[in-house]
Write a structure and sequence with these properties.
There is one protein chain. The chain has five helices and eleven strands, in the order αααβαβββββββαβββ. The chain has about 190 residues and is of the alpha/beta class. The protein has helices at about 5-20, 20-40, 40-45, 60-70, 140-145; strands at about 45-50, 75-80, 85-90, 95, 105, 120, 125, 135, 150-155, 180-185, 185-190.
Length: about 190
């Protein structure tokens, strides 16, 4: 991989993602959801941290709906300044527009969840096969999931957001690594890479 700064790499991969047509992004998201729903790890999970897709991020909304239908617990992030917490929701009507124009759970009267064991689906701008991730540069996920070793982190990306072959993204000691990476090609175990 070329030696570029994180912001340069982030912008290059974001441009790749944004170059997808709406139809290509929707089709790839459907394929990614199909892989997740067929995955034994997901079928067995009872608690899941999700994100609400913004723009052309991978949409996992069919997986969310499946979780609700199966009585699984689902939580979504809400940003407050430099902090992020997750709040449990039981239906798609429990959202309103929040920071960065992202749909966030309404938190009035709720306490944030802090599940020590759960699956967590993580968005980002770029990933590599070893589990490194470049997010959006604010570090919310890195701070929130630091030290939560029982949470299985799953990067969600289109193939165009994954570094080629054995290329590695730059990573700092505080950057959390994904345990798995899911794309149109299937689920990759990053621990085995």
């Amino acid at each position: 991989m070329e030696k570029n700064t994180k912001p340069q790499i982030r912008e290059r991969y974001r441009a790749r993602r944004d170059a997808l047509t709406a139809e290509e992004a929707a089709d790839a998201s459907r394929q990614i959801c199909a892989h997740i729903l067929a995955w034994d790890v997901c079928r067995k999970a009872r608690r899941m941290y999700f994100y609400y897709p913004l723009g052309k991020e991978v949409s996992l909304l069919p997986v969310v709906e499946d979780a609700f239908a199966r009585g699984k617990r689902a939580a979504f992030p809400k940003v407050d300044g430099m902090d992020m917490d997750f709040y449990e929701v039981s239906g798609m009507e429990e959202f309103s527009e929040g920071c960065f124009h992202v749909m966030e759970p309404r938190a009035e009267g709720k306490r944030p969840v802090a599940w020590e064991t759960a699956l967590c689906f993580v968005p980002g701008t770029a990933f590599d096969r070893s589990g490194s991730r470049l997010g959006y540069g604010k570090g919310y996920y890195d701070r929130y999931f630091a030290g939560k070793d029982g949470v299985i982190l799953i990067g969600c990306a289109y193939g165009v957001q994954i570094a080629e072959g054995n290329d590695r993204l730059p990573a700092e000691p505080h950057d959390i690594r994904m345990d798995y990476l899911v794309s149109e090609s299937g689920v990759l175990n990053c621990r085995a890479e």
